[in-house]
Structure formats: structure tokens, C-alpha cells
Fold these 4 entries.
Entry 1:
Amino acid sequence: MAIPTEPTETTETTETTETTETTETTETTDSVSARSGSPGSWRELFGPDHRATALLIAGVMLLDGASTWVTTSLLPTAIEDIGGERFYAWTTTAFMIASVIAALLVSRTLSLRGQRGGFRIGIAAFAAGTGIAAMTPTMEVLLAGRVLQGFGAGLLAGLSYVTVQSVLPERLWARGTGLVSAMMAVGFFVGPAIGGLFAQLGAWRLAFAVVMVLTLPLVPLVARAVPPGRQAQDVSPLPMISLLLLTATATLISTAGVLSEPGLTVAAIAAAFVLVTVFVLSERRPAARARVLPALTYSPRSTLRWLYLTRVLLTAAASVEAFISLFGQRLGGLPPVAAGFLGTTLPVGWALTQVAVSGARPSVLARLSLAGPFVLAAGLAVTGLLQRENASPLTVAAWAAAYLVAGSGIGMAMPHLSTAVMGSTTDPREAAKASAAMNTIGLFAFSFGAALAGVLVNFGAPSMARSAHHVLFALAAVAALAGIAACLERRSAAVLSRSGR
């Protein structure tokens, strides 16, 4: 068990102390496992006590997962109507940048508005952005709608992790994070289905209207699902330097993903790495008054840094999903709809496995977290070996199976990563920050991975098979690095456990 946090004479305890406070609030993942007992069941999660919370989390993550795919499916039809083809790529870029900014503001929103207020802001922003997209006369206005959508989605996703940690009992954390992944995967199917249907009917605006209407049932759930807001004196300083650095990083990464010149793309990614390094150096300073990540992240008495690093590397490797449909069309000759569903195989493998293992005991989840990254690496490597021009239907089926296996590796690792992060401290504010950071670093890692994959695709051109080999083998190596980070986390947890922490 962790030693309770002792009060200090300042009002910025969790923001300003690095050594003493960190030591007092640290818990190893082994100690979390030891006190968590038997895991809760899906019946308990959706029982009377937690049903509203589960439905709220499920609803917001379904919308988050579906929104991008709805837009992607509709965009070619929308461009024929309103023009603006030169802004095509920026519909995703604008959404991502806004999501990152919102994710960075989750802790601040909790301080000012509490969980209820945060969810209401996120739902309102998402609904308003979707409504703007439905009524847009031009592509420029559609981009404005996508910014609001992205802001709402980023805020809601971050709040979902915080809600799992702060509202659900610890025995349900693995189930709650499994629900987050499962509903994202469902969204990957619902999005193309809604978008494709209305695009086929030539009524693309109605698709956005349907998504907006689907947000309305979430409003009454908020008051039942989450506790009331915090008091004004709990407001923490805004980490402006960190926010500016990470926003600039997100912009560079997003820009790298749409640049056609490989040299410029490499330069943008390199500059983003520099900004991330500056961010880490700034955050770990003992004198830092406010941080995006918990102070525990930079403490040798915590495994949090290894947990986050594993999450970053896993998510970066998972960014291959952004290119699965492209490889399916160019190498397998799949029509767009079939290629789109091929692209969902990796996240579906992720979600199904995470749901399946979320009821395991913490000690089992910890062992699965060691194997998961290597399963992901093996799945990507096998898929890379199978990439070839004019692939047969049997080969395409083998791709799908290998992607499912790769996704299952992520699903094996994520329950332990999520629950260990949520249980890394007994300080409520730092625990909320640690939980929200899972979404923030996930957004950045996916963007970095997709930008890197884009560079590798360009390096392999004009041969798409060579591009696929570059991407899949490189990201398999990244997944293997995640396995090394997971081993270091387990080793660090064992050392801390033996030392009595």
C-alpha cells in the first residue's frame, strides 16, 4: 500500500513537488495488483450501480470512433457538391490537432467545471461541429466544424479514462477500459456503414445530422453517470509552456502526414521530435509549477514512465491501421468498401482481445502485457512477408488473419497498462491527470507512427509492395521495442516491490 500523502504548506502540492510528494503517492503495479482482488464482471459493470456510467462511456467512445470514418466515407461525395478538394487532407488534420489540444486541457477542465461540466462541454462541441458539417456551404466551413468535432471528441475521450478511474471501483477498471476499446471498434464499423449508405443515396448532409442526433441521449446520462463539479479553489495552474510545445508538435506531425515531398516530411518529423524532447526536459524540472503529465512520470520510484513508454510504442505500431486500406486496394485489388473493412481488422482484434482478457486477475494481466507487444510485432512481420502485387483472395484473407493477431497483441497489453496507470498514485488530482494522459499520449503516438509510415510509403514508391514492406517491418520493430519497455516496467515493479514501496 502507498503511504498517504501528507499536507504541505503550499497550495500547489501535486504540481510543484517532485521528490517528497512523489515518494509518498507512488504505488507499484504489484501493490495495485495485490489489493485489487477478484476482477469485476460485465454484469456488475452494466448493473444498476454503474449502468449509467458504462452507457455514457460507451456512447461517447462510439461517437469518437464513428465520426472520422463517417467523414472519410462521405468526403468524396461532399467535395462534388461544395468543392474544396485542396482541403481534403486537412479534414483529418484539423480534427486531430483540435483533439490533441482538448486532451491537453482535460485536467484544467476538471478543475474548473468538474466531470459533469467537462462532459457537457465535450458533447456540446461535438454536436455543434457535426451540425455545422451538416449545413456547411463550403469546405472552409466544414473544416471549422471538424475543429469543433475534434475538440469535443478529444475532451470526451480523455474524460472517459478519468471516469473509469474515478467513478468505477478498481475491480472494474479493466472492464471499463475494455469497454472504451470495444466501442471504438464498433464505431469503426458504424462509421463506414452510415457514411457509405448516405453517400450512396446522395444525401451526405443527413449522415452528419444522424450523428448529431445520436449525441442527444448522452446529455441526460451525464448527471446520473458522474459526480458533481469541483470547487473553485481546486483550480490548478495552466501548463502554458507544455501546452504550446505539444500543440506545435501536433501541428508539425499533422502537417508531416499531408506533405508530398519526403524531405519536408522528414524535416517536420525531426522538428517534432525536438519539440517533444524540449517538452520532457521542461516538464521534469523540479521547479515546474504545472505539468501535463503527473510528476510521478519523472520519478525513479515509479513505473509510470515505463507504462507510458510502452503505451506510446504500442500505439505508434498500431498506426499501421491508417494504411491497411491503401495496401488492400493497391495490392489486393479490393473495392473501397471491402478495403475499408479490411482496415478495421487490427482494431477489432485489439477490442475483442481486450474485452476477452479484461476479467483476468491482475497478475495474469501483467504477464499478458509482456507477451502482447511481441504478438503485435509477429503479426505485423508476418503480414509484411505476405505483401505482394496482385495478391489473391486467399492472400488477402491471410492478411486479415495476421492483422487480427497483431491487434490481439495490443488487446493483451492494454488492460494492465491502463489499470496500472490509474492505480499509480493515491492523490485524486494526479490520478485523474495520469488517466487522462493515456488518451493524450495515445493521440500523439498514433500521429507520430502514421507520419513515419507516410515517409516509408514515399521511400518505397513507386512500388506499393516495397512501401508495404517498409511500413510493416519498421512498425514491427517498434512493437518489439514496446516489448522491451514492458519488460523494463515489470523489472522496475519487482525491484520497487522488494524494496517495500
Entry 2:
Amino acid sequence: MKIEIKKIQKHQVAFILEKGSYEKIPKTLDEIVGWLMTKNVEIQMPIYGLYYNNPIDVSENQLQWEMGAAFVGDLEEEGRIKIKTVPDHLVVSTIFKGPFNEASSVYGALLEFAASNGYKIAGPVLESYLNNPDEVPESELLTEVQFPVVIK
């Protein structure tokens, strides 16, 4: 597994903040991507999930997460869909190959790599979904896993 520190460039995202079961992820992704497709903007793939807490630490109904996608253009928030600008930042990153629900298996290696290379985790984990489960077998799914970091 290749782990690296890389810089993420400033970008805009449209997202939906959710609370509760991860079973709502597919419907939430469909909602955000469907909305973006109706707008006159360029969608920047991949779509992402940002996970604010851990199912080991909280009950399913207390899980907090967001699903979204970057875009180029001008949009205003609408209903559940929010817009934010993500500033330039550093991340510790790797690519996981396999079922989306197993991507968390690399979290420990990323945390260890960051700590042993003089970085401190500075926020929640982000998973970018690099290919589509409707187009490739589950064993071929690719997820880029990132934790934002700062130098200690």
C-alpha cells in the first residue's frame, strides 16, 4: 500500500449533511449528483463521503456524515443541499481496493504514517469513491482515503 502526503487544492463542493445510518448513503449520493446534473456547472468527480464520528464510538442514529461532489461554477444553496469552499490543505492519503465498507481497514496505517512523519491529524476522514459499483465488481472498487494533516 502506497501512503503519501499530498496537497489538495482549494475547491467548491455541494453536499448534504446527514445524521443516522450509512444505509442512507446511496440515496443521498443520488440526490446530490442528480441536483448537480440539473445545474449549469461542471461536476468534478469523484464524489466523496466525509465521516465526522465513528460507528464504534456512537450509536447508528448518532452517526454524522456528509456526501458531496466538487464543482466548477456558481451555485446557491437549495433545501438540504449546502455549498462550501474547501481551502488548500495537506492530507495523508492512500488508495484502498475492495468493497467500500472495508475502506476503514486502512485508517490505522494512515494515522501511524502521519504520526511517524511529523504530522498531526487535523479533521475527519474523507473517502473519495473513484469508480462506480454499477460498472465494476465489488473487489475492483477504488476508494481514496484521506485524513487532513498539519505539521506537528
Entry 3:
Amino acid sequence: MPSVVKINVLTVPPEMRTELERRFANRAGMVESSDGFEWFELLRPLEGTDRYLVYTRWRSEEDFQNWQNSQSFQAGHAQASTEARGHGHGQAATGSELWSFEVVESAGRKD
């Protein structure tokens, strides 16, 4: 069974970029301990867009759904909301959409 990739596309105003990155840095590895988790990356836009990509790769769709319904997922998002209020900030992203893909082929280097 091929892995699945979920890309959360976050629209982030320039003044909230540092805050978004700080929140992700403080997420305490919650997703990494989830069963079926394979990879995470937060991708910062370089030019021409205000959209960050949150890339996660999972062993299966079921593993992703289990994580989304887990206490870790709920706790992580609750923590972000609490931190936002504590720093006088609201939501870092003004929009979000989720893209889903199945891995057909992949390659990598092992250095």
C-alpha cells in the first residue's frame, strides 16, 4: 500500500510569518510520535506567494485520520490557540486548505 501525503496550505500575512514559524517550532514533536507517521516539513515561501506548505507523509490514509482524531492533534491545536491569545496574536494563518496525494514514486539520497 502506498504512503499518503497531506499538504496543509496556509495563507500567512507577512507580519505573522515569524509567529507561525515559532508556533511550529514549539509543537513539541506531537505528530512524530503518531503511529504511521513518516515525515514532516514546514515550507516557507520564497517569492510570489504568502502561502506556507505543511507537508506530512503517512503510511496510510487510516493512519492520518487516526492522528487527526487523536488527543495529540486536539492538544496541539488547543496549545497554538492558547499561545496566540497569550502573545496578543490571533490566528497566524488567514486561510487553510488541505491537499491529499498518494505516493506513486519517490527517490532520495542516503549520505
Entry 4:
Amino acid sequence: MPARWCAKFGQAYANGLRWRRPRPGAKWHLDEAFIKINGELKYLWRAIDADGNMLDILLRNQRDKAAARRFFRRLLKTTRSVPRVVVTDKLRSYGAAHREVMPSVEHRSHKGLNNRAENSHQPTRQRERAMKGFRSVGGAQQFLAVFSGISPHFRPRRHLMTVAHYRTEMTTRFAIWDQITGGAGLPAAA
């Protein structure tokens, strides 16, 4: 059932939330994680901005210069903006692709600077465990694109808020969700 829901409605809802988000920040964090799909190792490339908003994800077979270049181009196309700084880990493919695609952007490559991107993989790992793994590359790409767009909407940075602010923030977020899904006019279930 969740896979069918994701295929039919998920991307439209994720796009509705994406259009309401503010423009991405000037500092982007990029990282890749390993995911096993049917016993084969795949690489999940992910980009987030300085505020922790997911910019884009891409699931690839390789972790080389061509995959990094494709991810950079896709990222620039989907965000329609150019960052001031790109922060990555020490993977050399980032530097090679960066020099080709975004030579005017500053590139910082350091293990400790990229913790924000490393931590952004946690919800994906939790969901992967709950689903007992992904079955196909296309299904994983489709699900993660939707999940990464919707999940942060319901996970505000709680540790930075007071209880009253958290309640008003969640009320606002549920009102936005009702507008996007068309559930604003429906009666509440008992």
C-alpha cells in the first residue's frame, strides 16, 4: 500500500511542499551513502543546504567522477541556483566534477565539516530498516525523493524551540499539509 500511495500522490505532495520552502542557502553540503538493494551495493548521493533542507538525491551504481558530475548538474537544474560554497567529504570525485561543472564556486573538502550531510542520512536509514530494505533501484529512487521531501516537513528542529513555539509550528505545518493534500474541507475522523 505505501508504495502505491507514493507512486500516485507522493511526488505531487513533495513538490507542493518544495515550492513553499525558502530558496536554498548559499552553503551546500554533499555526501553519499551506501545502500544495498537486492544484495547489490548502490550509492545514494544527497545534497542539503546549511539549514538542513534536502535539495536533491540521486541513486547511482557508481561513486566516480561521472556520477558526481551528473549529480552536480541535476542539483543545479532542480534548485535553479548556484551556491557560494560546496562542502564535501574527501572523495576525490567531488573535486574533479566540481572543477568541470561549478569552477567559480568555492569547494571545501574536509571530513569534519560535512557532519550536517552525514546526519541527514539517518531518517533514510530508519525508513530502510522499517521497510526491511528496498526492492529495486527505481522504487528506492522514487520513494526516497518523496520521503526526503515530506519527512522534514513534520520534523522541525524541536531542540531549538520552546513548547509553545513547537505547537504553533506544528499547527501551521499541518494546515499547510491540509492545503496541499486537499484535506482542509474534509470532516475529522472520530
